[in-house]
Design goal:
The structure is a homodimer. The first copy, chain A, is α+β, with helices and mostly antiparallel strands. Chain A has one domain: Mth169, Chain: A (2-Layer Sandwich), CATH 3.30.1280. Helix content of chain A is 32%, strand content 37%. The first copy, chain A, is built from 2 helices and 3 strands; from the N terminus they run βαβαβ. Chain A has a 3-stranded antiparallel beta sheet with strand order 2-1-3. Chains A and B meet through helix 1, strand 2, helix 2 and strand 3 of A and helix 1, strand 2, helix 2 and strand 3 of B. Strand 2 of chain A pairs antiparallel with strand 2 of chain B.
Chain lengths: 87, 87
Amino acid sequence: MKKVKIYVTLKPEVLDPQGKVIMNTLHTLGYKDISEVRASKFFEVTINSDDEKYIKNEIDEICDKVLANPNIETYRFEILSYPNKSV
Amino acid sequence: MKKVKIYVTLKPEVLDPQGKVIMNTLHTLGYKDISEVRASKFFEVTINSDDEKYIKNEIDEICDKVLANPNIETYRFEILSYPNKSV
């Protein structure tokens, strides 16, 4: 059994309205030194396999089909031993 | 100028309906070996300061006030040099 951390981010050239709203909120609150905010998604997936090659293939499929929109997002992931205590 | 990566995750004891829906979708698609999915948020913030102590204080405030709900979420962050090419 392994835990996989998957990070799905907008491609750099894609506008991020959610990040822009957060940045405007921070400026309103007085945090004027924040010059950019990009909002992304992050998933922790537990998979019942210890075969890293198999896991890599399956996570690639899952990202392409479900977790990421390949037109506007990229993803990366890391495979960890289970259990892992960090958030 | 520094880039800060901020990870906001639900506390382990808090139910994650979004993660549950994703897991059910994956099972429907045939990925039966996925036993848990937790969905979280991930922010990349650019800040016009190089003082790590100042940045740490400001990011703690921003997380507590805007990015995370301290009742149900925890956060961690890492301060990187700018520019950083990784997603």
